[in-house]
Amino acid sequence: MARKSMGSNRQHLIAFAAMLGLLVGGIAKTEAADYKYKFTKIADTAGDFSDFFGPPALNNDGVVAFSAKLASGGPSGVFTGNGSGTTTIADSSGPPFSHFGAPSLSDSGILAFRVSLDVGANAIVKTGGSMIVTIAVGLPGDNPSVNDDGAVAFWVQNNTGSGLFMSEGTTITPIAHAPGLSSRFRDNPSLSDRGAVAFLGFDAAGSGIFRWDGTGTTPKMIAHTSGPYSRLGLFPSLNNEGAVAFFADLDAGGSGIFVSNGTTTTKIADHSGPFNSFGSAPSINDEGVVAFWASTDAGGNGIFTGPDPGAHKVIA
């Protein structure tokens, strides 16, 4: 998301915000800012495509990667575009792929995505030059994350349990694996360019958002349902400074968007203000700016970067 030194959330973005070009993650900034937004149409169903699958991904060069089906009964695939046309990365017109998950895109142009193979298995793959490299085969999750070095973080389930792993294509490194810290994982890790991974996992006390900083087998707890949160969003977002943005329902009622580095937690917006509901996939960049979907008490919804729907509106 944003410039090389900025956003590291390759795996996901609020779907519409990924196409906006939010060129603005430290701990979060919430003050009003006079950001200028440019809206560029990348692809739509009035043109070459009949349907889109999952959230798109955006890199700092303004390239958007997305999973879609071509119009007129054409194949499905993974595509990229920057507003001046689209490029097919892989499609189902021939072997070995039949279905595609939502892609992750790095600033260096590397993509990673889940595929269903014609032979019946599923795999996590990434692009490398003109080649598509298989990272893992089995029962991988739908949403891997790739960084500028070509490392891929992904969830996979096999006959030894479930876990989160990272691989550059040759060596697979466990991040957390059952029956260790977490017994279950959600398949939406967020990988930074520094090799840290944020993810939602489950332990004996409930669910938590954890951050693995590249070494050891005990990720740092960022937030947990043991308090003050009753539920955590599926899509935490990690920047290169180690700050994690996340959605949470609160024990006291209501919900909000928060940022934490494991020591300090900052509220970006919650139900006590002019918002009444939030999307579960906020995105943070290296300046600490958080983009999130929300609906307002006044009616309507949109993408915002802070607690004031007027001053922090991207589009509504």
Describe the protein's architecture and organization.
A hairpin with an 8-residue loop joins strand 27 (301-304) and strand 28. The protein has strands at residues 49-58, 64-70, 76-81, 86-91, 97-100, 104-105, 111-117, 122-128, 131-140, 145-146, 152-158, 161-167, 172-177, 184-185, 190-191, 197-203, 206-212, 220-224, 229-232, 237-238, 244-250, 255-260, 265-270, 275-278, 283-284, 290-296, 301-304, 313-315. By secondary structure, it is an all-beta fold. Helices cover 0% and strands 47% of the residues. It is globular and about 55 Å long. The strands form five sheets. Strands 5, 6, 7, 8, 9, 10, 11, 12 and 13 form a nine-stranded antiparallel β-sheet that branches. Strands 14, 15, 16, 17 and 18 form a five-stranded antiparallel β-sheet that branches. Strands 19, 20, 21, 22 and 23 form a five-stranded antiparallel β-sheet that branches. The chain is built from no helices and 28 strands.
Provide a concise account of the structure shown.
This protein is an all-beta fold. Helix content is 0%, strand content 47%.
Q: What class do helices, strands and sheet pairing give?
A: mainly beta
Helical coverage, percent range: under 10%
Number of strand segments: 28
Element string (H = helix, E = strand) = EEEEEEEEEEEEEEEEEEEEEEEEEEEE
Q: Mean pLDDT, rounded to whole units?
A: 85
**How is the biggest beta sheet arranged?**
9 strands, antiparallel
User: Span between N and C termini?
Assistant: 21 Å
Give the overall form: globular
Low-pLDDT residue spans: 1-26
Into which percentage range does the β-strand content fall? over 45%
- Counted by DSSP, the helix tally is 0
Radius of gyration: 19 Å
